[in-house]
Specification:
By secondary structure, the chain is of the alpha+beta class. It has one domain: Alpha-Beta Plaits (2-Layer Sandwich). Helices cover 32% and strands 24% of the residues. The protein contains 2 helices and 4 strands; from the N terminus they run βαββαβ. It has helices at residues 25-41, 68-85; strands spanning 9-15, 45-51, 55-61, 103-107. A 4-stranded antiparallel β-sheet has the order 2-3-1-4, with helices on one face. Helix 1 runs antiparallel to helix 2. It is elongated, with a radius of gyration of 14 Å. It starts with 8 loop residues before the first strand and ends with a strand.
Length: 110
């Protein structure tokens, strides 16, 4: 289903609060895929997802009806749960991780 016009997008950088370099190559791609799934679940479009050891970048296409605060809340909550539940089984320190307030750059496609 196409996005409503105009097509706002969100560019955000999520970083763990304590800046741990914990997003290892072993599970980074799975995290990025999970984040893309979260975005698709609320009918957004994951345009680009990437990152390194301690943070994730997202470029997300949104509908004009999306509330940015809800989008960010859901991405952070759902991905934190995934990290704690899945990664935390093999890496106990992961249960201490949580997202800090990321920078958000609303973009206009105009």
């Amino acid at each position: 289903m196409p996005l409503n016009s105009p097509q706002p997008s969100l560019s955000s950088r999520f970083q763990y609060q304590e800046s741990f370099a914990m997003i290892s190559k072993d599970w980074r791609a799975n995290l990025h895929a999970f984040l893309g799934g979260i975005v698709k679940d609320f009918k957004g479009v994951p345009l680009a997802i990437g990152g390194i050891k301690d943070h994730v970048h997202l470029l997300v296409g949104l509908r004009t009806t999306h509330r940015l605060d809800y989008v960010l809340r859901d991405i952070k909550a759902d991905s934190s749960s995934w990290v704690h539940d899945i990664v935390g089984k093999e890496l106990p320190m992961a249960s201490r991780l949580s997202w800090c307030h990321g920078s958000v750059l609303p973009k206009s496609s105009a």
